[in-house]
Amino acid sequence: MVESIVSTGLAIGCIYALIGITYNVMYSASRVFSFTAGTLGMLGGILGALFIARMGMPVAAGFLLALAGGALFGLVTEIVAVRPVLKSLDQHLYVLSTLALALMVQQFTAIEWGTEARPFPRLIDIPRGGFDQQFWLPMLACAVVIVGLELLHRRTLVGRAFLAIAEDTYAARALGLPERRLRMASFALAGVIGALAGFAGGQMLLAFFGNAPLLTFYGFVPVALGGMGNNRGAVVAGLLLGLFQQTANFLVGGIFASVAVFTVFILVLLVRPEGLAGGVTPRRV
Amino acid sequence: MTLTRRQALVSAGAAAFASGLAKPAIAAKDPIQVGYLPALTGPSSSTGIGINRGIQLAVQELNAAGGIDGRQIELITRDTQSDPTKAVNGAAELTRGQKVSVVFGPVNSGESLAVVPLLARTNTPQVHPCWVDTLTDPKKYPMCFRNAPTNQQIGAAANRYVVNILKKKKVAVISDTTGYGTASVNAYVPMLKGMGADIVYQGNVDAANPDLKPELLRMQSAGTEAIMPWSVNAGFLSRIINTRGQMGWDVPIVGQTTLGSGQTKDLLEKLDYWAKVYPNNFRPVCYQSDGQLTDRTREFLDRLKSAKIDIGDTLLWWIAIGYDSPRMIAEAMKNAGTEPQQIVGYLNKLKGFAGVFGDISFTPEQHDGYPDEQVVMVEANSLKDGAFRLAPGYGA
Amino acid sequence: MSQLRLSRSELPGTRFTFGVALPLLALLVVGLTFPLFGGGYWGVIATRACIYWVLVAGLNLVVGFAGQIAIGWVALLTLGAYTASVLTAGNVMPPLHPYLALAIAGVVGAVFGLIIGLPALRLRTFYFAITTLGFATIVTQVALAWQSVTGGGVGVPGPILPEPFYSQWGFYYFCLALAAICTWMTANIAASRFGRALTAIRDADVAAEACGISKPALLAMVFLFSGAVAGVAGGLFASLQSYITPDAFTIDLSVLFFIAILIGGQGSILGPLLGTLLLTVLPEFSAPLVAWSTFLYAALLLVIVLAIPGGIAELLDFKNRRPLESGRAIMPRPELLSRLLGTAKGRSALTLDGVSLSFGALRAVDELDLKIEPAQVHGLIGPNGSGKTTTLNIISGYYAPQRGAVRMNGAALPVLAPAQRAHVRIARTFQTPRIVGSASVLENVMIGATIDGMGTFVESLLSLPRHRRDETMLRERAMQALAAVGLERLAEVRADRLQHSELRFTEIARALTLRPAFLLLDEPAAGLSANEIAQLSALLAAIARAGTGVLLVEHHAELIFDVCDRVTVLNLGRKLAAGTPAEIRSHREVVDAYLGA
Asked: C-chain residues within 8 Å CB-CB of A96?
C-alpha cells in the first residue's frame, strides 16, 4: 500500500513537476504564463501513441518526433500567442491568447483523435516488475530534465544567456543578447519538456485529450507553490503534490482527493501568494 | 433560415438511403418525419455511433420496401454532442421547429433526463434506449417508451450472476463519478444486500485517476470475491482489469457492458487479463450454447456485412437497438397511423415485437419493454463480430 | 448621420442616456416582438440567450470592467441551478415556491460569487484564472458526490414556474424581462462612479488607489452582484433544461460566457450583449459548426486579442473614429480654479519628520524633514536617484518609512494605505500618466472625485436620486477642472487618443477634481513644450493661490524657480539645501552638485 502510494505518487509528481518546469521555462523567457503547458503534455502522449502505436514507427523515432512536435507547438505558441502581446504585458492579454490557443488545440484533438482515452504503447520490452517502467520513466525524464537544465545553465553560453534574460529582459537586450531568438529557443525547449512529460507519463495517463486541462491545472500547482520561475521549487512541490494526491486517494478516495488538492492549493496561495519558496512583490509605483 | 437548416439536415440524414434504390411509386406523398437525437460526437459518443449504424440501415430498408403506406421515412437528425444543453436545443428544434411525428433518442441518459420532460410537454411520442430507471413513467410521461432494459434489470442480472451462479458473497462495487456510475452503485448495493451478499467495498472514483491500485488493494484486503464495476468509461474499466492482472489476482469482474467493448480491449496491457471478465449483454445477440447465433441474429449480421457496415469497433447490441427502433415505430405507424395518439395507443398494446435486440412488449402501465430474462452476462474475451458467448453457468 | 449628431451632444458613457440606450432599446423591441416571427424552436434559443445574458451581464462587470480573468463562472450557474432545483424539488426539505427558490439561488450565488472572486485581491492574474477554473471543476465534483441533495449524476428536475410563465413564451418573457433588468442595472453601474472606478482598477490600479478607490470593497460588491445574477441565471437555466445533471455544466459553457465578453469588448454593455447573442445563436445555424463551436470561439478570441482588442464595441464606436483637430493647443484658464477649489481654508501644513527609508543597502531617503505649506508651491529637486519620487511615494502612502512620519494637522498619516490619502485631500500625479485609455477624458477626470459620491452601489444599480445627484455633481466638477486645465473641448474623446502633454494635463485635472488640500506632482513638465510649460506654471501658481499646497518634483529648473515659493534640494536621500528660489540659486553646493552640471 505505502509502496503503491510512493511509486505512483512520485511518478505522477514527476509529471506535474515537468509541466511546472514547462511553465517556468516559458515564464523565464517572456514573463508569460501560458495555458498551453498542459496542452504540451497532452500532445506528448497523443503524438507518442500516434507515431508508435498507430503508425508503427520504432520507439526511438516516435519519441524524437513527439518531442519535435512539442518543440514545434512551443514555437507556434511563441509566434502566435506570446510575441504579439508582449508589448502590453501589463494588460495580461497573454492569458487570453494562450487560453485561446490551448482551447483550439484541445478541441482539434478531441475531434480528430477522439474523446476516448486510447492506449499508449509500452516503450521498453521488458517484463513487468513491481516497479514498472510506467513509474520510473517519468522519474527518469524528470531527472534528465533537471540535470540537463543545470548543465545548460552552467556550462553553455546559451544557457547563461537564458539566465540573463530571466533575470532582466531589458538589461539582457541592452547587452546585445538576441532576445527574440533566445525567447523562441526557450519556447521550443519548453515544448520539448512538456512533450517529454506527456510521453514519459503516457502509460499512466494514456493518450487522452482530457489530459490537457488536467495537466494545465495540476502542473501549475507546483509553479504556484514552488515560486514562479523556480525549477527546484517546482520539482519539490510537484513531488509533494503527487504524494499528497495519491495519499488522499488512498485515505479519502476519488472525488474528495481532488477537492482536497484544490483546497490546499487555494489556502496556501491565499496565505502566501508568492508561493512557499517566497519571493518579493514587484514595485508598483 | 429554418428552410436551409432543414435541407442540410435532410441531406445528412437521407444520404444513407439515397441513390441506388428503386423509388416506390407513391413517393410523391409527404415523407414522415422521425426525429432522432443521437450523440455522434463528444465524450460518450461510442454508443451513439453504434446505434446510428443500425438506424441508418433500418431506415434504408424500410424506405426501399416502400416506406409507410408509400410515405418515405425521413430521419431528422440532431447531434447532441453528449451535451444536455445541445440535446434540449435539438429536442426543441425537432418538436417545435420541424414538428416531427415521433422522436427516437437521446441515446445517453444524461441527455434523456432533460429531454424526456420537454417532449412530454409538447405531446411528442418518444422511444429511447436509456437505462436510468426514472426515464419512463407512464403517468408523468405517457408518450415515452423504453425499448431497452432499465438499470434495475441490468443490475439484477449482474447481481444474480454473482450471487446465485458464481456463489460469491463478498462483493466490491465500484463506479466512476458520472451520473450513470454513481446512480448504479446506489441502486445495486441495496439489491445485493437484499440477496444476502456482503458489500465489502463501495466507492466512486474519478475516471481520470490514473492509478486504481489503492482501490483494488482495499478490495483485496477486505476479502473481495467479485468486483462489480459500473462505468461506461473504457479507460477506467481497463485500468481495473489491468490492475487486477498486475496484482495477479484472479477475482472475477462482473459488470457494465463496456467491459467487453473493443475500446476496453485496446487498452488492456495483456489480452490474458480479459479472462474472468463478465460484462452484461443480451441473450438474443449472444452465441448460444452451441456457439451459434440465433437465426434471426445471424440473418441480421449477414445483412450488416452485405451492407458493408463496420461491426469490428462496436457492439452488436448497439447496432441491434438502432436497427429495431425505427422498425418498431414504423410498425406502429403502419398499423395505427402517424398521429401521436395513434402511435402511443399502438405501442401501449405492443406485445412481443420481434426485434433483433429482444422481444419488446408494453402495456399502458408499463413502458419498460425489455424482458428480464434476456439480460445476461457474457465472457468478455469471447468477443467476435460484436457478440459474445454466455458466461459460464448459463443454460448449461 | 443622425447618430453622429446625436452623440455630439452627449457625454459619452458618463450617463445611461438615450444615445447609449438606443441600440439596447432596439434589441429589446426585437426581443419583445420575437414571438411574432420566430418559431417555437427559436423561442428556446432566444430564451437560452436571455438566460446566458443574465449571467454574462453580471460577469461583464467582473471581466469587462474590473478586468478580472474569471474563466470558471459556470461554477455559479451550477450552484444557482442546483439551489433552485433542489429547493423546488423538495427532496431535502418541503418544496419552496419557485420564485422564492430563484431568489435564494441569487443569494447563494452572491455568497459564492464573493468566495470565488475574493482570491482576486491576493493573486496575480493567471493564478486567479486558474483558481476560478478549479472552482468550476470542484463544484461539479461536489454536485456528483453529494447525492442525497443533488441526486448525484442522475440529477434533479429543474424548477417549474407557475402560469403565466409556464408556457414557452411566458417563460421567454420572464427571462427577457430579467435580461432587460440586468442590462439596465449594469448599464447604470457602468455609467456610475463605481463603473469608472472598476475600469480604473483594471487599467490604472495605482492611480485608482491614489484617488481613494478601495479595491477590496468595490470588487466585493461587484462579485456579490455578479454572483447573484449568475445564481438566478442558474435557476432559469435549470428550468429551461427541465432537468439538470452535472454534465450540463461544462467548461465549454464557461468559456462561452467569458469569450462572449471579450469578443464584445471590455468596458462595454452592448458589445458583450451582442457577443452573447452571437455565440448562442451561431452554432444553431449549421450542424457541422456545432462540433467545432468551441474551436471557433477560441479562434475568434485569438483574433480579437491580436487584432481588435476592443472587440465589437470598438468596431461600433464610430464617434471615436472621427479625426481629432490637429495642432490643437492646451489653453488653461486658471481663473476658473477658485470656483473649483474654493478659497484658502486655513489648513495646516503637511510635514515630514525625520523620514528614512532604505532599499537594502541603498538609503533612498535619509532623515528628511519637509514642510509643505498650504497655498504655496514647494519644489523638490535633485539629481536622479536623490530620492524625490521615493519621498513622494512615502507621502502618498505607497512606501512605509522605516523611521519618522508624515503628518497632517498634527496627526501621523497611516502608512501603506495609499487609498486613505484621498480622504485627507491629498492628490497626486505620476511620472508616466496613468489613465484609463478606453474611457473618455471626462470619465477619467471624474474618477478623481470618486470618494465624494454619496450614493451606494445599490443606489447606482437602480439609478436612484442620490446616484443621479452624484453624477451631476461629479460631472460638473470634472468639467470645471477640465476647463481650468484647458481640455474641455476634448472631454468626450477617448483618453488613449490624446497626446502626451494632454495626458499630463488630464492627470492634473483628475487630481484637481478631488479639491485637494495638497497636490503632489511627479515631473509634470517632462515632455512638454516650452509654451506648455509656461501654461503649466501659470496653472500651478493659480492652484496655490486657491489655497492648495503643491509639492512639485521636477527637473526643469526654470519651472521650479519660476513658480516655487520654497525649494528643497535632495542629494543621495539627504536634504542638501532648502530655501526660497533665490537662496537656492545662490547656494554654492547646490550649484556645484546640481545646477551647475
From this structure: 69, 262, 301, 305
